[in-house]
Each structure stands twice: as C-alpha cells, then as structure tokens.
Write a structure and sequence with these properties.
The structure holds 2 protein chains of 2 kinds. Chain A is an alpha/beta fold. The radius of gyration of chain A is 18 Å and the shape is globular. Helices cover 39% and strands 11% of the residues of chain A. The longest helix of chain B is centred in the first third of the chain and has 15 residues, at 20-34.
C-alpha cells in the first residue's frame, strides 16, 4: 500500500484487526485464536505499509504476492483484507459459515485477493518459492516481491526443508518469508513437541539471510523487510518472535488458545482489553 | 462401423514398439516450442521421465528440484500462479504417490494448470519390483475434483496428449509406462481429451481398456474371434472425465462389459466404468487388473502373464465371462 501511515497509526490498525478477529471467531464458534492475534502487527505492516497491492484490482500484474502458509491464522488476513478494501467488512462475520467466501482456511478460487489455497502445513514456502523463481529467472522482474508467513510448529513438516534447499540453491532473493515464532503448537510448546532450535543457524546453513525481530514491533517488521529487499543474492527469513494470543491477557502464552475460539463472555472480556469498539458490530454487544 | 485408424501392422511380428514415455518427451519439446509459458520440472529423474530433450532445448525453462516430490508439486503450483504451465515429472510411485496432499491442496483445490507426469507406472515397470510399480495412482487421482487423468495407449497418443494438456488450463495427471509397447495408433488417429474410441466393432461383449491394456484387449479379441466370440474393443485414454456416452453406447450394443488396466481394480479405471454403468445402464461387468495385491520383480511380458493381464489370459477370462453371463439390453 506504501508508507502513508505512521507507526502509531499502524499500531492502531493492528489493534483494530485484533478486535475484528475476536468478533469473527466468536461469531464463527470455532477457529484459531492465538496465532491470529499474534500476527496482527505483521499483517498490519504488510497490508498497510509493505505490500504493493491494489484492493480494487486484486490481479494487478505488478502486485507483490503474499500467501499465508499457516492458513489456520487466516482470520487476521481476512480482517486486514477487509480493512484494506478487498471486500466489505460486513462479510467478516460470515467466517466459516456455509456459503461464505471466508473459508476456515484460505481458498484462492473463491476470494479475489487470496493468492493461494493453504492450510495443510508445509507447502506454502514451496509455492512462494515457485512464484519467486518465476520472477527472478523467467520474467526478469526485479520489482515484485513474494512474501509468506509460516507458523513455527509448521517447521516440523519435511516439505518446508525441501523448499528451504530449493530457495537456497536458486538464491531466490525476491522471496521474503516470516516465521511466526510464538513457541506453541496444538500439543504444547514447540520445543516439547519437536525441538526446532537453533532456527537461525538452520536457515543460515540452508543459504538464507536470517533476521530476528520482535514480531510486535511494527518499525522492526518494516525495517526487516527493507533489509531483506536489499539482499540480492539470497532469500530472506525473518524470524519474528511473537507472543501467542498477543493483546489479550488471558490468552497470551497459552497453547490451549491455538485451536479454539472465544465464547461470548470471553470475547467480551477480550474486546474490553483491546479497547472500546467504535465500528464493530458484535452480535452480543449488549452484554458488554 | 468405427472410423478409428489402428496401426495396420498391429499384429505383425515386427510391429514398431516404443516406450509410451518417449512420446511424452517428444510432445513436451514441441509444446515448449509453441508456448514459452511451458516450464518443465524434474525430481532427479530427467532422462528417465524423458524431459532431457526439453532441458537441452530450453535450459532456461527447466527446473531441477532434486529428490523432493512434495516441493516439486508445490513449487509447480507457485509457478502456475505466476502464469506458467508447469510439467512436474517423476516416477508415478512418488508423483503422485509421495506428494498426493500437495497435489490435492495446491493444485487440484487451487485449480492450477499443473501437469503431473507419473512415469514408470503400472506393473510394466518390471524388474524394479513392487515398490516402484505404481498401481494405486489412478485411484488416488480419480477422486480429486478438477483433475483430468490421461493414460495413453502408446507413444503417439502420449505425444498428442502432452500437446493438448499443455493448453487446456486445468490440472492434469498423465500416466506413462516405462517399457516398450506396441504402437497401436497412427499419426492420423484421433485423440481428444475426454473421448473414448471404439477401435474394433463387435456384438457379444465390450472390452474396455486404458493405457497398455488396449493392445492386450485387441490381441484377446483376435483369439476370441477364433472361438466365435465377436468382441468390441473400446480404447479409453481419458479416465477422467470419462466418455460416458461412448461407454454406455457400447454396453448397450453388447450387453456385457470387461475392463482392463495395469492398476489395482479397486477404484481404478474399471471402477470408474462400473460406477457409470451402475448409475446409468446396469450391465454385467468383469474387471481385469491387479486383484488387491502388489506386484513383484520380473520382465514385463512375464509379469503380464503372471498377473493374467496379457492378451491370452484376458481372452480366457472373457470367454468364461461370456459363457456364464447373460447378455443384457436385448429385447
């Protein structure tokens, strides 16, 4: 979109997106809360500063590509897309409901602006690498970038490391990937389920430029992307340390919020923490 | 009378033979000359899958992924999003055997025009043995919405199929065989995606085959003719979408159907024919193929006999079937 908002305005966007996510998930009655909340700052930075996209022309030929590999966190992407104008915000509460374009996991064919279909973990980086390969070697286009976000638990998948080798071999410098390093997955902490560290060393040894940042610091997110764009001989991996459930005290750091949605009472408490609602129509608003 | 032009030398001892996969290699290179959006990907089996000619002609559009079939499929999906037409090749045992989920999500559900090339499919992979003799791929791919499945009957047809799938804008699975097999068609023989062809007229039973089995059915039909059984032979190179009209018309003419495939009979080509007939024109059917078991090492001809899918074994099975089964749809 391109740098018109200040950092504090972007922070407010992120907070608004969190509120939308709480309302969407409460309405849906199922879904993934923790990761959706902890990606709010990255998603706000992407859709309102970093990404070159046109919500009114989703197939614009000069756009950047963003695909969400850990598709279960798509509520936060939907919230950002609606806020950016890809579709009307009134559609957000159709999430996960019959006939909705906002499927439980993203489906490209149904919703313009989604670049791929994802959710089954491990293959988003490969898809992004395929696109980045095309830009670099087949299209000779240096001005477009391909972004993807992976969950950290997703790194258990072997396919990720096939993609890591592929992107390293071909030095896909227009590929910029994030790891949402929130340390949780469904069965517990990532290091108890299947230890992932040393992630920095691992990605570096696969031929990637690795940057570690606070995934809630929007200036750091923007700086890391700018740095990545300046690296022209390697793909870039931004390890973004995040707090699962960020923004809602009783959800933070708790892996149990990975795969569940708030009930009405929990949603009301979460929204109170996130600040008063101006423009969100929660079905149970009267109970607030 | 059918108009299909079979190879006039079909039953000569010196019939020209060629691996079906070789036709793919020729077709890919020609398709690549016509359309510069075509890219070829290989998972360390470039010459085995016959992509070598494309690689040498268009080195800038050839991508080596290494032995990583999951990445092969998902990278292809990304290339397709970028407007390319990827041909992703490996052995069928791994592609779609290893990477079925990536194909399902990033190609079929995502509706991207990636061409999955599964070479060395079927029992005719021969000496490699059961691990590499992919027999379940037709079933695996047949259940995927958006997916088109083509199993060419010879190398000429594989070449025609390759050129057509390059331009049809849909996810496709092209199943190829390793060993030399007789060329049953001619340059002039028709091939359209979604069409089946009556290649021999008959009245007593319909023999429907896909891939290498059509030749074996034609051999069987000759043997059966000597026994007074007049078999119609239907060549079905497109397994999905199935040409239901041609299949039903043939079943209505003969009232008895036999299917043959170099694959598990469960959920495969015979299963597809049985579903169509069961829904629309219940007809006695006998399915020939691998009977819920894995293969083993051996030469192709030996294995065709061992697993009773060669012409002479098919003829015997058809004879039993015809002798013990009433002919339906006769007024």
């Amino acid at each position: 979109m391109g740098g018109q908002l200040t950092i504090s305005e972007l922070q407010k966007k992120a907070n608004d997106l969190r509120k939308e996510v709480i309302c969407m998930l409460e309405s849906a009655g199922s879904g993934h809360t923790a990761g959706s909340l902890d990606l709010a700052d990255i998603m706000a930075a992407l859709y309102f500063d970093i990404l070159k996209v046109d919500p009114k022309n989703p197939n614009w030929e000069e756009r950047d590509i963003f695909s969400l590999s850990n598709g279960h966190t798509v509520p936060i992407q939907y919230a950002a897309m609606a806020e950016a104008g890809f579709f009307d915000k009134s559609e957000l509460t159709t999430l996960r409901k019959l006939g909705s374009r906002l499927q439980g996991h993203p489906e490209r064919v149904i919703l313009p602006g989604l670049e791929t279909t994802s959710g089954p973990l491990g293959s988003g980086l490969s898809q992004a690498a395929g696109y980045a390969y095309s830009l670099q070697y087949l299209d000779n286009n240096k001005h477009r970038f391909v972004y993807t976000i992976m969950g950290d638990g997703e790194l258990d998948e072997g396919n990720v490391w096939e993609a890591a080798m592929f992107a390293g071999k071909y030095k896909l410098s227009q590929l910029i990937a994030f790891i949402d390093r929130n340390n949780i997955q469904i069965d517990g902490s990532t290091e108890s389920v299947m230890p992932l560290e040393d992630l920095h060393v691992k990605w570096e040894s696969f031929g990637w430029h690795v940057i570690e940042i606070d995934g809630h610091n929007i200036q750091s997110i923007i700086d890391a992307v700018n740095m990545s764009k300046a690296i022209t001989n390697r793909p870039s991996m931004i390890i973004a340390y995040t707090i699962a459930g960020k923004g809602v005290d009783f959800m933070e750091y708790d892996y149990k919020w990975h795969g569940i949605s708030p009930n009405t009472e929990q949603a009301a408490r979460a929204l109170q923490e996130l600040g008063v609602l101006d423009d969100i129509d929660l079905s149970k608003e009267a109970e607030l | 009378m059918n108009q299909y032009q079979l190879n006039p030398n079909l039953f000569n001892d010196d019939i020209t033979q060629e691996p079906i996969r070789v036709g793919f290699g020729r077709g890919l290179r020609v398709a690549g000359e016509i359309n510069d959006k075509i890219v070829a990907l290989s998972a360390d089996l470039t010459d085995s899958t016959q992509e070598g000619s494309f690689r040498d002609t268009f080195p800038d559009r050839f991508i080596e992924t290494g032995i990583a079939e999951q990445n092969l499929a998902a990278v292809s999906s990304g290339l397709a999003l970028a407007g390319k037409i990827p041909f992703a090749s490996s052995f069928a045992a791994f592609n779609p055997g290893r990477n079925w989920e990536q194909i399902r999500t990033t190609i079929a559900l995502n509706d991207q025009p990636v061409k999955i090339i599964g070479s060395h499919a079927g029992i005719s992979d021969g000496p490699d043995g059961a691990t590499h003799q992919m027999l379940e791929d037709i079933a695996l791919m047949r259940v995927l919405p958006n997916m088109i499945i083509i199993v060419p009957g010879d190398s000429l047809e594989a070449e025609k199929a390759t050129k057509l799938i390059a331009e049809n804008g849909k996810p496709c699975y092209l199943r190829l065989a390793r060993e030399k097999t007789p060329i049953i068609s001619t340059d002039q023989s028709p091939f359209e995606i979604g069409k089946a062809y009556v290649v021999r007229d008959g009245a007593d039973v319909s023999l429907m085959g896909t891939g290498t089995m059509t030749y074996q059915l034609l051999v069987a039909a000759n043997i059966l003719a000597q026994q007074g059984i007049n078999a119609e032979v239907v060549h079905v190179p497109t397994v999905k979408p199935l040409d239901t009209e041609t299949i039903i018309d043939s079943a209505r003419r003969t009232g008895r159907v036999v299917t043959a495939e170099e694959a598990q009979i469960a959920a495969g080509f015979g299963g597809a024919v049985a579903e169509v007939l069961g829904d629309q024109l219940p007809t006695p059917i006998h399915r020939i193929g691998m009977q819920d078991r894995f293969g083993e090492s051996g030469e192709t001809e030996e294995l065709f006999d061992h697993f009773e899918i060669s012409g002479k074994h098919i003829a015997r099975k058809v004879q039993d079937f015809v002798n013990n089964t009433p002919q339906y749809h006769r007024n």
